[in-house]
Structures are given as C-alpha cells and as structure tokens.
Write a structure and sequence with these properties.
Elements (H helix, E strand, L loop, with lengths): L6 H6 L1 H10 L4 E16 L7 H10 L6 E6 L2 E7 L6 E7 L2 E7 L5 H19 L3 E2 L1 E12 L5 H9 L4 H4 L10 E6 L7 E9 L7 E9 L3 E2 L4 H25 L4
Antiparallel strand pairs: 1-5, 1-7, 2-3, 3-4, 4-5, 6-11, 7-10, 8-9, 9-10
Helix pairs in contact: 3-4, 4-7
Amino acid sequence: MLLQIFYGIILKHQRKVVIYFKERRGKMNKESLTSLSFIIELLNPPMKHQNINIHKLFLEFKDIYTNCNKVTDTITELSRINKDNQEINKLIIQNNKIVVMNNFTTNTVESFWKRASYVIEKTVFCLNIPLFFFRQYTLRFTASPLKEKDSRIFLGNVVCGLDDNNLKPFSRPIHGFGLRIVLPPIPNEQNEYSIRIESLLSETSKIFLENQARFLTPLQLRGEYLDNIKTEINKTDKFLKNNVCSFLEQYNK
C-alpha cells in the first residue's frame, strides 16, 4: 500500500490491502466537482493611481466590497468577508496589476464572471488603464474519487502506480500526495497551463484541482476587450473540467 499513514497497522495487514486495491480501484468522480477559489490577475503598465480615484471605486463598489485597506503606498485592497460561510471577495489594486478574487466560494465560474466583469470594466475606466500585458487565471476545485475514501491512495497507487517500497526512503507517514503538470504554449494557442492535482490536506477524501493559465498576448483595453477575457477564463475552466478530468478518468477503467 502506498500511503503508510500508520506504518505498523498497514504493514501488518498488507496482504489484505493489496487484495482490496485489486478489487476496488479508486475512481475519479467528475460529477463531484465543487468550486473552491477563482482568481483573475491582470498585469498592466506601471502607473501611479490617485487616491481620489481609488475612493471613487470604493464608492462605486459599495454593494460588493465593505472594506478599503491601503496595504502599502502602491497596494490597495477592497474586500468583503461573508461571516456566514467565510467566503472572501477581494479587489487588489497595484501600480502594475489588478486582481479580482473569490475564495471559499460556492459560485460557478459563470456567476463569478458576472461580478468580476463589472469590477474590471469600472476599474479600467476609472484608473485609465490602457492595456494588459498578459492575464493569469487561477481556478480551484475539489472533487472526490468514486469509491476510494482516501485521495492519496487514488493518486499515489492508482494514478502513479507507487507501492510501499517506493516510499520507504521517506521513513515517515505521507500526509499529502500530488502532481504538478506544466503545459507550454503551442503554435495555435499562445497560453500556458500549470496544473496541480493533489490530495486535499484538510480533507483527504477529496482531490484538490487547480488550473493556472497565463495568456501571453497583450490586450488593448478598447472595444469588446471583456469578451476576450471571458473567452480566456472559460477556456481555463473548460481545460480543467474536460482535459484534466479526462486525464484522471482514464484510471477509472
């Protein structure tokens, strides 16, 4: 068995565990995908933002953000924390970047984008930002294996094919296990993906999935530029839900 959480107990029942894996291989359950965190990072030319414009934005977003905190001379953070479920919404304004995030969320990507697009449009207009050099989107979800109760076993034993002997050099229990896969731009698609597939440390029955996508072509902020950003974030979402999940689902056979 791979993940020797309690070495003595597992080694004592090793034969039983091996049979268990032959009969019940953990399976990826795509239907269990649950939203966790969405982050949009938009990098612009270095600019000095006037405090009065930041204040105008805070008033504009009074129904979205309840706090305004000037972290440093060049970083301002607008935020709101839902005390019922600890959901966090933030807009971070820096001299060379704006960040829109929704952490510990139950929203879909579509509903997140409805709010984020409004925030981005008003921020670009108020701060007179001319272009984004590149855009980075980080989408995080959790999911559950269909049968295996421990995601470390699914990822380590089933996906990576490791066993007890492979882990002996560590000489200690395995608390978390995961993979990182980096996919570079290709001729027809000038964006890159950085994929994380891990056991969720706070709840090992779940798999943590992250797709961090970077779109490297500069984007002029005129016309229907929001449509470009929407297309990019949807592409990031689709790659995780289709390609990354398909990678894991092949181990369901």
